[in-house]
Write a structure and sequence with these properties.
alpha+beta; binds adenosine-5'-triphosphate; 5-stranded mixed β-sheet; single chain; Rossmann fold; BirA Bifunctional Protein, domain 2; binds magnesium ion; about 40% helix; elongated
Length: about 425
Amino acid sequence: MSKSLQAIRGMNDILPEQTPLWRYFEGTVARLLDNYGYRQIRMPIVEFTELFKRSIGEVTDIVEKEMYTFDDRNGDSLTLRPEGTAACVRAVLEHGITGGGQVQKLWYIGPMFRHERPQKGRYRQFHQIGLEVFNLEGPDIDAELIVMTWRLWGELGLRDAVKLELNSLGTSESRGRYREALVEFLSAHVDKLDEDSQRRLKTNPLRVLDTKHPETQAVLVDAPKMADYLDDESRAHFEGLKARLDAVGIPYVINPKLVRGLDYYSKTVFEWVTDKLGAQGTVCAGGRYDGLVEQMGGKPTPGVGFAMGIERLVLMLEALDKVPEELSRQVDVYLCAFGEAAELAALALSERIRDQLPNLRLQINAGAGSFKSQFKKADKSGALYALILGDDELAQQVVGFKPLRGQGEQQSIAWDALAAHLATCVVQG
Ligand code: ATP
Ligand code: MG
């Protein structure tokens, strides 16, 4: 097939068979966020490249090698957003909605773009639901974010399959002191580090902690620990968070090597990880970024947020067989009409029924083939009932009402009584 007729590698169509599960997932999250008082914000998909460089950090994987960057026709350098936090901070600053210390609890959903090596759970266009909270600095809000995701895993049936990892990166001062100690230690072992880590040692030493390289990992066993460098305030914050998670009964493990890829994090960082997806195990990740807004030119504004990868969670729901049964049925009632006059009547009747039962999922199929072939379609649609309207039914102003899933015999129902009858036998969400 010609290349222009293929989607770009790592950018996927989400086909009609898959969208019910996506909508179920997105709808569940949206309802939960509504219930906790979070409000949706929608940002553009493209921003000035500079925004991401400034907020994410020049020496991160994203900015160094993953961004889709291009010059537009004005010669401005633009980038398809690789994540949502930068644009969200830009938006709150631009609209001045945090500058007076107002609390903002915001969430967003949409595609993100990173030029990575495509594989299961890792794509070049992927989708996140993320949220950001501004002007709340205590551990209670960090806890709320985690509690909310814990509730989400509960609703989705995923609690047993995910694990919470936590760490504190401290304030930028304590992180600075730790960085110095880490660099000193690693420099003494530089010949044992893998190449990537040697490079990171110079550019972004905390990222060395993140290495997958066994030899470097062996060196790290004796490396200084961030926990020993935390200032009192960060320590108290972390204890406060843990106490709240304990109070709700959310299990966690402290992972001192959890540093997150981006420069802007401070104090709390966390990841929800799973072993059900192979190498792409992080399904939700976030943390606190108290310095970011100021660094981007705003007033000092505490912030905390997270983002979850929708593809990975959808994959998990499938892998663990947590796709709700009812998603397999997208049609309640399938109306088959035969003959020109009956088709007209069927259209008018279906509109009357929709007026009375606005949530009914009714599909009408007129003029499409023989009785037998229409019936096959009705059955294949997954509908619970077929309605039949031919010349005889038209003359008597009735429909044939045929259960398709073995719930009894076919009967004849008067048009006037049809909506009431359907209301009793189709359970509507
Ligand atoms: P990873 O370590 O897997 O590369 P990350 O730390 O780069 O993840 P974040 O920037 O924290 O990821 O994004 C939050 C979430 O978005 C991730 O936990 C993951 O679920 C999802 N995600 C990130 N990159 C991708 C991708 N290329 N394809 C699919 N999902 C992704
Ligand atoms: Mg990544």
